[in-house]
Specification:
single chain, globular, mainly alpha, CHAD domain
Length: about 300
């Protein structure tokens, strides 16, 4: 949906529901490919995350039981795709690190890890090809959710029904950022990343409702999510190294050092970006976003 194509009197709740249906449908199509691949799984996971962000925006327009049921359905569908995703992402992360560090291109530990991760990716790809039913169940979940979503009594309301959901999304990221500053370990940073991703996707969902000069926080949220995502992938890569007996000893040199140095830089950037992104209090930010939306406010 483009901002230019959105009529100024379109209701906020209708727009967000349309976005959720679009994302759930795109995820279902990706999982329905006759020859599913790691790329299909990656696309499906991204679309499911965007659908969950739209659902969270609609929280104030839905009864509690409906919201919890649909959020749980989307969460289960995303988790089922994690294994296929990890094999592809770890290999891409290692490749990117080796391109950045010339010394790693000839490093034996890095080369050995690349072979191991390549084998894992190939196994995951074969599993998807030979057992398409692994994805069929998640696709069915998404198709059923689409049917239910069309019947949700969200009405034709304005920002007032979205403001509570947006405020919760922003507040959760703000709290997770404070926790990450206190204790920047892998789990805490990953939890912050998820909250930032929800904010980024929510802001993107709201773009068709905005006109004039829009708040510049979407690009900041995207950048922060990217820093935290790259850091998390590197943390998973490190775990793959130290968790592999053949690699553990050899990897105590350039490879682990490169991972730690890159993570330190990404975390510094993330903390700086997070301080800017979450400078406002949640209700103040929600009011600012609401003022940029040209929709009915009933």
């Amino acid at each position: 949906m483009s901002a230019q194509g959105a009529p100024s009197d379109r209701s906020a709740t209708a727009t967000v529901r349309a976005a959720l249906l679009e994302h759930a449908g795109a995820a279902a199509r990706a999982l329905g490919s006759p020859t599913p691949s790691a790329v299909n799984v990656h696309l499906a996971r991204k679309q499911i995350k965007r659908a969950r962000a739209a659902l969270r925006l609609l929280r104030g327009a839905l009864i509690k039981a409906t919201y919890r049921r649909e959020d749980a359905a989307l969460r289960r569908a995303a988790r089922a795709l994690n294994t296929a995703r990890d094999a592809r992402v770890l290999l891409r992360t290692l490749d990117a690190l080796r391109r950045r560090r010339a010394a790693l291109r000839k490093d034996q530990a890095a080369a050995a890890l690349a072979r191991v991760l390549g084998q894992r990716q190939a196994r995951a790809q074969r599993q998807l090809r030979l057992r398409p039913e692994l994805l069929a169940g998640e696709r069915a979940v998404l198709l059923r959710l689409q049917v239910r979503a069309r019947c949700w009594p969200v009405g034709g309301h304005g920002w007032v029904r979205l403001a509570p959901g947006f405020t919760r999304i922003y507040r959760a990221g703000r709290r997770a950022g404070r926790a990450a500053r206190r204790s920047p370990d892998m789990l805490t940073l990953h939890q912050w990343r998820k909250k930032v991703q929800y904010l980024s996707h929510a802001l993107q969902t709201l773009e068709p409702l905005q006109s004039g000069r829009r708040p510049q926080i979407l690009e900041l949220a995207r950048r922060l999510a990217e820093h935290l995502g790259d850091d998390h992938d590197l943390a998973l890569l490190r775990a793959a190294v130290v968790g592999s007996a053949p690699l553990r000893t050899a990897a105590n040199g350039p490879l682990l050092a490169a991972i730690e140095q890159r993570r330190a830089m990404l975390q510094t950037k993330a903390l700086a970006a997070g301080k800017r992104l979450y400078a406002r209090k949640p209700r103040s930010m929600a009011a600012r976003i609401g003022r940029s939306c040209t929709v009915r406010r009933s």
